[in-house]
Amino acid sequence: MADAAPRLTRLAEDLLGVPLPLRVRAWDGSEAGPPGAPVLVVRHRRALRRLLWKPGELGLARAWVAGELDVEGDLYAALELLAGFLWERDPDTAPAVHPLRDRRLRDAARELVRLAGPWPPPAPPAEEVRRRSGPLHTRTRDRAAISHHYDVGNDFYRLVLGPSMVYSCAYWDEDTTLEEAQTAKLDLVCRKLGLREGDRLLDVGCGWGSMAIHAARAYGARVVGVTLSGEQAAYARKRIADAGLTDRIEIRVQDYRDVRDGPYDAVSSIGMAEHVGAARYREYADDLYALLKPGGRLLNHQIARRPLRDEGAYEVDEFIDAYVFPDGELAPVGRTAGLLEEAGFEVRDVEAIREHYALTLRRWVVNLEARWAEAVRLVTPGRARIWRLYMAASALSFERNRIGVNQILAVRTPEGGPSGLSLRSRAWTG
């Protein structure tokens, strides 16, 4: 009998205590669940074994990456339903557990084990970061983490990001394209930094060179860009040569902690500080402060999470850590601003632009889906599935205010002296 989907639906509802909001289609062709809802496709019983072995997000992620789980219909709608069902579920609203329910839970778990098929589960997908050891955020471990995420192929990133090759939040206005919005973001950063002809700019985490090229070409800055990704550096150097800007821009494969040729007039750090880590953030702030001349400015563009009542309870997202950004950590914007101040900076402006990142991510997902077959050919099916899921889920997280992104303008203000900003410093918003 083809009855796997009804059984799965009933078991899920028994174990979680609430109706399943998605329709389920199982490997035997059976379906169950609310008509018209997005369909969760369970292509193989191996997905259940993964979930039993690693309950929660990591088990789901492994099944998704392996292609054993999929969504048919609106991916965003499915993730919205799952967010309220699993990740954002209020434990206070869960039904009380009583002895009869305990027995039902035990019976449901036994039936799920039988339905999952032969034990043990398969090995994790090849795209998963293997077990790491040693302290976080050493130079060696950071280099490996950056390579995992960024050295997956420049052609793949160009497919997703578009010609701008900017892998951070764009700055949108009505009726703008992705390329126009990314150029607007780069120009906003340059204006906040007050760049002028001949200024020395350090671009920390320079990516594929887009910020460096814009600062040199539009503002006449002399730029040093540093990245830990060899593939990014090679791509950036070619773009710079093609633009005729090799006399103004130097790209280095170098850890920001090893930069010793200050002082700089300005530092841009766009989408890089998420890799620094909580334990190293004060060191990061100290290093950038030391690299700036008195009066020099830092523009720190960084994703933030919402603060928790108990900050000691913060846990890194298992899917992101295993498949997307190994060792990445998010902090509340207040904590970031406080550490910059502790390092000596004067924080002069904070602009929250989380809605802009949601729009950016949705455009990247459109790019990926429009050229799906090519994306799979450039990387692997699993890698393409990772990027689609993490970008769509991240867009919803920004929209739901679970995470945000902020531009912090900080100045190495001379002791007892002026900041160097005009009385109406927000004139850059135009």
UniProtKB/TrEMBL annotation:
Give the UniProt family note: Belongs to the CFA/CMAS family.
CDD domains on file: AdoMet_MTases
Tell me which species this is from: Streptomyces pyxinae
Region Disordered: start-end pairs: 116-138
Q: Which domain of life is it from?
A: Bacteria
Q: Does the keyword Cytoplasm apply?
A: no
Q: Name one Pfam family in it.
A: CMAS
**Where exactly are the transmembrane stretches of this chain?**
none
Q: Where does the Polyketide synthase-like methyltransferase domain lie?
A: 156-396
- For this entry, the protein name equals Cyclopropane-fatty-acyl-phospholipid synthase family protein
Keyword field contains Transferase = yes
The protein's matches in InterPro entries, at most eight in alphabetical order, are given as:
CFA/CMAS, CMAS, MeTfrase_dom, SAM-dependent_MTases_sf
Gene3D superfamilies given for it? Vaccinia Virus protein VP39
Q: Keyword annotations for this protein? A: Lipid metabolism, Methyltransferase, S-adenosyl-L-methionine, Transferase
